[in-house]
């Protein structure tokens, strides 16, 4: 618990990074793997990550994140988090692999697949979107905590051209909903401390 609190207290939103620090592909994959352990509705894991790290990709992102140029330019990478509105199409793969790994009985898999098929055959588009947005928010916070555990700093960015980013990076805008951008790297500034409301203000006991 104390280590976790240290991670939480040490995490601050950073707007300027050391541009000389680059996160390796291997370590970035570790961070994303740890982030993807977050919970999701029916374990469908609707989050999708676009790791924007090359100079060419950052140049493409820059005009879409006009008020966050320092993060884009100096970070090791900017991770665009998307929600996949067709995540249910991965159900067969997810549950079949679970059986192969011995963590789910075959009969449970069959029951889950049938249930998901039935749910998504009639699920309203808005409800589907709301579910994926919640799940993608969970993974985004876990990604930032995973990054901090690896010694890196992050900043969540909500101010960007959400209606343009999918197409800019050749993604289907009708399928992939942008959630946020997360810049990641080694801080070149301390970042600001911020006040948090006390628990008795934000919580109730009945």
From TrEMBL:
Q: Which residues form the Nitroreductase domain?
A: 8-186
Q: Which InterPro entries match?
A: Nitroreductase, Nitroreductase-like
**Keywords assigned by UniProt?**
Oxidoreductase
The signal peptide stretch is none
Q: Which PANTHER family match?
A: NAD(P)H NITROREDUCTASE YDGI-RELATED (PTHR43673), NADH DEHYDROGENASE_NAD(P)H NITROREDUCTASE XCC3605-RELATED (PTHR43673:SF10)
Give the family from UniProt: Belongs to the nitroreductase family.
Protein known as: Nitroreductase family protein
Q: Which organism is it from?
A: Cytobacillus gottheilii
């Amino acid at each position: 618990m104390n280590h976790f609190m240290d991670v939480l207290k040490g995490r601050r939103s950073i707007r300027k990074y050391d541009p000389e620090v680059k996160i390796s592909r291997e370590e970035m994959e570790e961070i994303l793997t740890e982030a993807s352990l977050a919970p999701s509705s029916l374990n469908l894991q609707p989050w999708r990550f676009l790791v924007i790290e090359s100079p060419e990709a950052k140049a493409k992102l820059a005009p879409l994140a006009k008020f966050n140029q320092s993060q884009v330019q100096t970070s090791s990478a900017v991770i665009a988090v998307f929600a996949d509105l067709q995540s249910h199409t991965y159900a067969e793969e997810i549950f079949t692999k679970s059986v192969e790994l011995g963590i789910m009985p075959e009969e449970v898999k069959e029951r889950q697949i049938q249930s998901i098929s039935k749910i998504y055959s009639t699920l309203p588009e808005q409800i589907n979107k709301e579910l994926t947005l919640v799940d993608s928010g969970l993974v985004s916070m876990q990604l930032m905590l995973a990054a901090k555990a690896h010694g890196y700093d992050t900043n969540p960015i909500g101010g960007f051209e959400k209606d343009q980013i999918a197409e800019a990076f050749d993604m289907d805008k009708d399928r992939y909903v942008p959630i946020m951008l997360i810049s990641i790297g080694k801080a070149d500034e301390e970042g600001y401390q911020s006040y948090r409301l006390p628990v008795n203000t934000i919580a109730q006991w009945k």
